[in-house]
Write a structure and sequence with these properties.
This protein is mainly alpha-helical. The chain is 83% helix and 0% strand. Helix 1 packs antiparallel against helix 2, helix 1 packs parallel to helix 3 and helix 2 packs parallel to helix 4.
């Protein structure tokens, strides 16, 4: 479960960092719930939520790849692609203020590709 441990641990740390970024703006702007049309807060909330929305699929896919004894190169590719993509996406979303940004584009692409590869590989491995 080496690659699953890496993926889950790094995703958890990233989730904590993004949550902390939300709390920082909440405290600075005195916003207890929601975002009150505060764009800066809204972007941070979405960056955190987007990670969680995708993690519920990506992390089990990585665990299942290990369970099905996928080749180590495949596990490494999917795990590294996932983590790098998930680091790039919030950077691009926040730095680009919600507009098109290279980090957001590459992060989304890496996340989608690694999830697709993981899903297809799992289906092939059980066949």
């Amino acid at each position: 479960m080496f690659w699953t441990t890496i993926a889950v641990s790094l995703t958890a740390l990233l989730a904590l960092i993004l949550a902390f970024m939300v709390v920082q703006v909440r405290r600075a702007e005195a916003v207890g719930i929601g975002h009150r049309d505060n764009r800066r807060l809204e972007l941070r909330i979405r960056a955190h939520a987007n990670l969680i929305e995708y993690a519920v699929f990506a992390l089990p896919l990585i665990a299942l790849l290990e369970y099905h004894q996928a080749p180590s190169w495949l596990l490494a590719t999917v795990t590294i692609g996932w983590v790098v993509g998930r680091m790039l996406h919030p950077w691009g979303l926040i730095a680009g203020a919600g507009r098109i940004h290279i980090g957001r584009v590459l992060g989304t692409l890496a996340s989608w590709l690694t999830m697709a590869i993981g899903a297809i590989a799992n289906l092939v491995l059980i066949g």
